[in-house]
């Protein structure tokens, strides 16, 4: 099979094209021909050798896919060759999704949402599952005030859609360019709820914009200094969802001083606990919401076809915050 291989940790130039053996699928696995793969910030964090790289077992990165089942192991259920599917493979597949094929446990796979092309469907699994887990675990009430860092990103956009579809309207976020602001307004956020993080005193401006004191939830999807803002604006004993594990020491101090209720959001936790059915089951729930038009599919940008150049370009765009509310996607042909 064709694949893009990471030569070693470092810059985006570390990728090269390679011909690798076809994955051997086990009795509980599906062999999937990948038609499109999406890119995630965790991809470049792994490329840089950061924390998530500990879970790598293949030099082929990429964590989600849309494709077609080629073969099904004897112990699989519910799938047969020819089925169109989506999956968040994480680090559980035979290799990553920057490749034409992958072998993956059938419990992590779900049918492709109706009427969606591969290029759109591939943008659902990773960001969708992260947003869905966050939505389910915070149990936000419609009247609660919520601040999300990185609202225009893939996870943020998905989460905003889920929250709005279930009645939340006090949603606030920050953006650093007009394209991201426009993408957030398309999602239904008022301009007064989208603050420029490049301007000073973001925390105070958020509190002023909220108009009713401290926030009930801070949700960090970015890490770094803006995670401190998310911790600053929540009130005593309020909630904080950490999706990145990239908060600062000051973030942790603020949360401790406020006695915050901290929820760590980790899709990998279910794989580590060998609860693989969590992935397929929750992808099916997301597909139902999409099929019933409760939420809309993510906006995507096709970067190019399978090649080292396409992967390099996508990584650079993510690192430079140039996605502008769209999920970056690579096709295989």
Automatic annotation (TrEMBL):
Residue intervals of the Enoyl reductase (ER) domain: 8-330
Protein name (database record): Zinc-binding alcohol dehydrogenase family protein
Family matches, as InterPro entries: ADH-like_N (IPR013154), ER (IPR020843), GroES-like_sf (IPR011032), Lipid_raft_assoc_Zn_ADH (IPR052585), NAD(P)-bd_dom_sf (IPR036291)
An example molecular function term from Gene Ontology annotations: oxidoreductase activity
Pfam family name, one: ADH_N
């Amino acid at each position: 099979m064709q694949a893009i291989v990471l030569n070693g940790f470092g810059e985006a130039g570390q990728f090269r094209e390679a011909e690798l053996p076809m994955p051997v699928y086990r009795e509980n696995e599906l062999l999937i021909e990948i038609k499109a793969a999406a890119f995630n910030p965790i991809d470049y964090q792994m490329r840089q050798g950061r924390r998530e790289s500990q879970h790598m077992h293949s030099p082929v990165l990429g964590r989600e896919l849309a494709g077609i089942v080629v073969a099904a192991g004897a112990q699989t259920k519910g799938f047969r060759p020819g089925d169109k599917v989506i999956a968040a493979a994480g680090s559980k597949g035979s290799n990553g999704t920057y490749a034409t094929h992958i072998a993956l446990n059938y419990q992590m796979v779900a049918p492709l949402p109706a009427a969606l092309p591969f290029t759109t469907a591939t943008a659902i699994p990773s960001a969708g599952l992260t947003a869905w887990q966050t939505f389910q675990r915070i149990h936000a009430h419609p009247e609660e005030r919520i601040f999300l860092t990185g609202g225009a990103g893939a996870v943020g956009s998905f989460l905003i859609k889920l929250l709005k579809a279930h009645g939340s309207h006090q949603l606030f976020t920050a953006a650093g360019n007009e394209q991201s602001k426009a993408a957030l307004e398309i999602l239904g956020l008022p301009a007064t709820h989208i603050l420029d993080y490049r301007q000073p005193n973001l925390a105070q401006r958020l509190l002023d914009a909220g108009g009713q004191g401290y926030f009930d939830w801070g949700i960090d999807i970015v890490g770094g200094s803006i995670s401190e803002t998310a911790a600053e604006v929540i009130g005593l004993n309020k909630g904080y969802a950490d999706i990145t594990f990239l908060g600062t020491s000051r973030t942790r101090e603020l949360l401790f001083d406020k006695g915050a209720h901290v929820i760590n959001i980790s899709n990998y936790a279910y794989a580590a606990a060998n609860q693989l059915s969590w992935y397929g089951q929750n992808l099916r729930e997301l597909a139902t919401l999409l099929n019933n038009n409760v939420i809309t599919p993510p906006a995507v940008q096709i970067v190019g076809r399978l090649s080292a150049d396409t992967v390099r370009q996508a990584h650079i765009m993510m690192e430079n915050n140039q996605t502008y509310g769209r999920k970056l996607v690579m096709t295989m042909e």
